[in-house]
Design brief:
The protein is α+β, with helices and mostly antiparallel strands. The chain has helices spanning 40-70, 118-121, 123-138, 145-152, 158-164; strands spanning 3-7, 12-20, 23-30, 32-33, 36-37, 83-89, 95-105, 110-117. It folds into 2 domains: 3-70; 83-164, no CATH class.
């Protein structure tokens, strides 16, 4: 509740103040009538009017927050704000490409974050998983135009598409030297294979 009792030389009464869509709404409810301070039922009536107005503003504030939480923001390069491309340095010294998601969750009313590995899932699947996490916490339906815009905003990293491709894979990218190598036959349990 944002109803505040003020008793100063300039004003005696209640002040209601809320911030909605970056705009401050502030209203005053005086406890003076004819130069004299109100008491009893008159004072209670003014307090209830202030509380009723605060409840209206609180409802508008909640609606504005929910709208803002569902909005999708893009930067000037068309990238989704809240989903970043990063390279994580592993203990063995290698770097792993991933998408890092950090947003305010409309579902949980707190900041949430996670990462999705491009190395593990491939570029397209990693982006879809990142978008699903983002949309789930922003309460964006999967059949909505906002969800389609998110999917379409996949970053264009030619070097990643070349190495990790659209194919979902849990394997390391194929190196240039091994591109023309003959694949080894699968080994089955209890079956010996000869080299030739």
């Amino acid at each position: 509740m944002s109803v505040e009792y003020l008793d100063s030389p300039g004003f005696h009464g209640f002040r209601v103040r809320r911030q909605i869509d970056n705009r401050t709404y502030q209203e005053y409810f005086s406890l003076k009538e004819g130069g004299r301070r109100m008491r009893g039922a008159a004072r209670t009536r003014v307090r209830r009017a202030a509380e009723a107005r605060d409840a209206e503003l609180a409802s508008s504030q909640r609606d504005a927050r929910e709208r803002a939480a569902r909005e999708v923001h893009f930067d000037d390069r068309g990238r989704v704000r809240g989903i970043l491309y990063r390279r994580k340095k592993e203990k063995n010294g290698r770097t792993t490409p991933l998408f890092q998601i950090g947003i305010h969750s409309a579902r949980e009313d707190r900041l949430v974050n996670t990462t999705v590995s491009i190395w593990s899932h491939g570029l397209d699947e990693a982006w879809r998983r990142a978008v699903d996490f983002y949309a789930g916490h922003k309460r964006i339906p999967r059949h909505s135009s906002a969800y389609r815009r998110l999917l379409a905003a996949k970053p264009d990293y030619p070097e990643l598409a070349e190495r990790y491709g659209p194919v979902r894979s849990r394997h390391r990218p194929v190196s240039a030297s091994g591109a023309g190598a003959t694949p080894r036959p699968p080994v089955r349990a209890g079956v010996k294979t000869s080299a030739g």
